[in-house]
Design a protein that fits this description.
The protein is mostly helical. It is built from 51 helices and no strands. GO terms for molecular function: mRNA binding. It comes from Zizania palustris (Northern wild rice). It holds the Pfam family PPR_2.
């Protein structure tokens, strides 16, 4: 039974779209199996609407752009390589800074003193004196706080503002400072500012504060803590405004809680403030988390849910584009494309103008679900409305075309980036590079890389493994090494990127190249555990188990402890390599290190026990697994049942299949096939037939292994009719393999139906299914039983053409067919004796002799020419066969030359040598040669045997009658 197990290794995901425009979406989202397609007619452009009233900059600052992300690595499943020859335009370099809030960098041509002066001026703008601060309006002070580069400067500036005479505490100022602190994860300072706001300034938290803090917490990976703020504000009787509501909807969306996000949005629109539906178990929150002080207020009764009753239920209509963008993205991720389109079409009627982000979101979600035409119509509608696409728009379009394998579509939009006056960014380059590399378009990819370098930028880190894999898969190892030395040596290259490159070599079995990357010099960064794990995989794939010890020593010297993946990889490697003791020892070390092995890990060790028929060890490990609280799965039970089936222990196999069913696991086809084998070894054909009939009612029916098991069972029992039914069914469905034919062949032969066995043998020979020596031997056995010498010789020739070595069974059948033919018993006996003493030339001589007696003279002569080249390795038997072949084929000169070489090599001619030599003299009419042989035999007093006598007599045909008569008298 073949069981496939998990290979434990880390993989570096290489998405097309980065966090630059997909900041939060890290988890795959559930998609509807068949999303409804939206008619293109719904995408008819509408007149440009006036901007929504009240859509100010402050709202955008707090809420930020909505995420329009998804699992890009799954989205971009590409088609096989296509041949394209396209010229890629050289576009401007991506901007130096991706954040529009950053100040521009100084011009590189400016003198040092000018650059320093500009820096001082920028610093003075961010840190104005108190007189300037006092003259600023509250809005200007808010902007200045937002522009601060780090949390400490923002806090210090806020302290200066609070110290100004006449300063009125502002919730907006608090929200900006709290956002700075939350993004820097300065939780202690944040708690201090929060308490000062509530106590010293007597300023209750407001919507801007809650929204800013929730947004920062979510971006810091504290989504559950941020949702606590929603319950906290409702308990205080604060109704979420549109910005706060949009922020919490986005957090729920990014956390994959689409239903809760839609419920919150709908409740807010209907004027209801209900948060009880959000499952928020306080006990699961980290007791040392950043919002623990808020949790303490709620748990100790300082505030309670009674405040929510004071919130007036007033229906609301969203008025901000950012809200619509968030909800549209939410519908898209939930697979509700029609609702997303309805929300999009509702924007103009609500007085909201769709912006670039809206169209980017719509294009992305439709492209993600395979609706390419609708996405293209949206892009066209965007241009018609007068909304200029940005670089994210083009990246979304290129991502969509890449997902469908449309290279032309990707490059068309890439070319249009420059025509629109935009600059390609790192995301653009990564999309195009990945498309070109995955289609092995080496020259085009190299042109793009050269353009990136000429623009003054570098190839993005996530593109490095993709380019390396392209070179490796194409066998361009020199180019791969050159690229690695040029682009992968920087200190910004992470250990995970190195691991991905090592894995690319490992997949091709190039362990030495992988080792070179692993041990290459690093600037600053040290190796991560991921690299060690992938290197273990490389050694395991190449079966270089001797290298693992030094790798683990290096790992220990570096102070890196093995993780769960390390142990899994080592166990899998040694288990698949046939080292059950080492795999079991590592399993014990894994448990001692504090890791709990999973079912798959136990299954890997049990697999190697099963392959080596170590029954007791497999049962002991099964019991250990159960005692550890790990429940066996269908693979483990299948392995145990299979090992008992192979060893003929039917009762034990039935015992474990009962345990399997009692644990609620239904046996699959593999398990039932193993049980059929067990019944077959016990000759219980009725029980096996019942299982086989049961498999016919399962999805897919019985596989070829189960059918062959039943066929073999019927063949062993001589049940010709039953076996023929299964075999005919397999042939009709084109499922019959070499095992199926072999079983029928042996059945007919053992039943004495030689004509039927010969027919099956010819069918198998012409089917193209013969793949190993065993299958050829099965066919040959039928030819030998029927005495078909020529068929045997042709089959051996077919084996040689397929580079399949003949084994002892093959030669045994060759000797058997020779004895059945009109061949001298002494010659066959000499061949058998020489074969028993080993020697490759003897095996070739036997094949040449078989070809010769089968009338295949040219094939026999070709074999002799091959093994006679290294003359120092030939023996007496090989020389005699060569003599016979040369004599039969008329190659008299070669025969005489061989006789001379025999004397040089110290090989003494025997009777067979003289027989073949006599034949050559007779065919050449060389009576003197015949007389010499005759006189030599008389001098040595060697008695004529029948073969030599017949050879001498046959010389009459050459005209040597006198010598022939003398030989006859003797």
């Amino acid at each position: 039974m073949s069981v496939t197990h998990q290979v434990y290794t880390h993989r570096t995901p290489l998405p097309y779209v980065t966090e630059q425009w997909v900041p939060h979406d890290l988890n795959p989202w559930p998609l509807s199996p068949s999303p409804s397609r939206v008619p293109t007619a719904m995408l008819t452009p509408t007149p440009t609407c006036r901007p929504a009233a009240g859509a100010g900059a402050g709202a955008v600052i707090v809420a930020g752009d909505p995420s329009i992300s998804g699992p890009q690595d799954k989205l971009l499943t590409l088609t096989p390589p296509l041949a394209y020859c396209l010229h890629l335009p050289r576009l401007p370099a991506p901007p130096a800074l991706s954040s529009k809030n950053h100040l521009p960098l100084p011009a590189p041509i400016a003198p040092k003193n000018t650059a320093a002066a500009d820096a001082d001026a920028a610093s003075s703008d961010l840190e104005p004196p108190d007189e300037v601060l006092s003259s600023m309006s509250p809005r200007e002070q808010t902007v200045l706080l937002s522009r601060q580069r780090n949390w400490r400067r923002a806090r210090d500036l806020f302290d200066r503002l609070r110290a100004l005479p006449g300063y009125a505490p502002s919730p907006i100022h608090y929200s900006v400072v709290i956002r700075h602190l939350a993004r820097a994860r300065r939780w202690a300072e944040l708690r201090f500012v929060w308490l000062r706001m509530a106590h010293e300034d007597a300023l209750p938290p407001s919507n801007p504060v809650y929204a800013a803090l929730a947004d920062a917490l979510a971006k810091a990976g504290q989504a559950r803590q941020s949702l606590l703020l929603l319950r906290h504000m409702c308990a205080r009787g604060i109704a979420p405004d549109e910005v706060s509501m949009s922020t919490f909807v986005r957090i729920l969306k990014d956390d994959g809680r689409y239903s809760d996000a839609l419920t919150l949005f709908n409740n807010w629109c209907n004027g209801r403030v209900e948060v009880g539906f959000i499952d928020l178990d306080y006990s699961e929150l980290d007791s040392g988390g950043p919002m623990q002080f808020l949790l303490a207020e709620m748990c100790h009764g300082i505030i309670d849910d009674s405040g929510a009753s004071a919130i007036h239920e007033i229906p609301r209509i969203p008025k901000l584009a950012v809200t619509y963008n968030t909800v549209i993205d939410l519908y898209g991720k939930a697979g509700r494309l029609k609702d997303a389109m309805d929300m999009f079409m509702r924007m103009p009627t609500s007085g909201i103008t769709p912006d670039t982000c809206t169209f980017n979101t719509m294009i992305y979600i439709f492209g993600l679900h395979g609706n390419v035409k609708e996405a293209e119509a949206l892009f066209a509608s965007m241009v018609v409305r007068g909304i200029n696409p940005d670089i994210k728009s083009f990246n979304v379009m290129m991502t969509m075309f890449a997902s469908t394998g449309d290279v032309q579509g990707v490059l068309k939009h890439y070319h249009h980036i420059g025509k629109m006056g935009l600059s390609a960014d790192t995301v653009s380059y990564r999309i195009v590079l990945q498309v070109l590399c995955e289609r092995k378009m080496v020259h085009e990819a190299e042109d793009l890389i050269e353009g990136i370098m000429m623009s003054g930028t570098c190839v993005h880190e996530q593109s490095l493994p993709v380019i390396m894999k392209m070179y490796i898969d194409e066998g361009l190892l020199d180019k791969a090494n050159t690229f690695f030395e040029r682009h992968c040596r920087g200190e910004e290259v992470s250990s995970k990127t190195f691991a991905a490159i090592i894995d690319a070599f490992a997949e091709r079995g190039l362990w030495e190249e992988a080792e070179h990357v692993f041990y290459s010099h690093r600037e600053v960064r040290s190796k991560d555990i991921v690299e060690y794990n992938v290197m273990i995989k490389a050694y395991g794939s190449a079966k270089r188990y001797d290298k693992v010890s030094s790798l683990l020593e290096c790992m220990n010297e570096s102070g890196i402890s093995p993780d769960e993946c390390t142990y899994n990889s080592l166990i899998q490697m040694f288990a698949s390599g046939g080292f059950p003791q080492r795999a079991k020892k590592l399993l014990g070390k894994m448990k001692n290190a504090g890791f709990k092995p999973k079912c798959e890990t136990y299954a890997a060790v049990i697999t190697t026990y099963s392959r080596n028929y170590m029954v007791s060890e497999a049962i002991d490990l099964y019991n250990e697994m159960k005692a550890s609280g790990v429940e066996p799965n269908v693979v483990v039970y299948g392995l145990l049942i299979d090992i008992f089936s192979e060893t003929g222990q039917l009762e034990e196999a039935l015992h474990y299949i009962n345990l399997m069913e009692e644990s609620g696991i239904a046996p699959n086809q593999i398990v039932l096939t193993s049980l059929i084998k067990a019944y077959g070894k016990a000759n219980c054909w009725k029980e096996a037939y019942d299982l086989y009939s049961r498999m016919k009612n399962m999805d897919g029916g019985p596989d070829i292994v189960a059918s062959n098991s039943m066929l073999n069972l019927y063949a062993n029992l001589g049940m010709v009719t039953k076996a023929k039914e299964i075999f005919d069914c397999l042939r009709i469905n084109n499922q019959a393999d070499d095992v199926s034919y072999t079983s029928m062949l042996f059945l007919y032969r053992n039943m004495g139906l030689l004509n039927e066995s010969i027919k099956i043998a010819h069918d198998l020979q012409n089917s193209g299914l013969l793949s190993d020596c065993a299958s050829y031997n099965a066919v040959m056995s039928c030819f030998v039983a029927k005495g078909r010498l020529r068929d045997c010789a042709e089959l051996v020739q077919q084996m040689q053409e397929a580079n399949i070595l003949l084994d002892a069974s093959t030669f045994g059948m060759i000797f058997s067919i020779m004895k059945k033919s009109q061949i001298s018993h002494a010659e066959v006996l000499q061949l058998e004796s020489a074969y028993s003493f080993d020697g490759s030339t003897t095996e070739q001589a036997i094949v040449a002799f078989l070809f010769l007696i089968s009338g295949m003279d040219s094939a026999a002569l070709n074999i002799c020419e091959q093994y006679m080249k290294p003359v120092l390795t030939i023996d007496q038997c090989a020389c005699n066969v060569a003599f016979k072949v040369y004599a039969s084929c008329g190659e008299v000169d070669k025969a005489f030359s061989l006789f001379t070489r025999m004397h040089e090599l110290g090989l003494k001619p025997d009777m067979a040598t003289y027989i073949h030599l006599t034949t050559c003299y007779g065919k050449s009419g060389m009576s003197e040669g015949l007389r010499s042989v005759n006189d030599f035999l008389a001098y040595r007093n060697i008695e004529f045997n029948k073969s030599l006598h017949k050879t001498m007599v046959s010389c009459r045909e050459t005209g040597s009658n006198i010598l022939a008569v003398q030989s006859s008298k003797k």
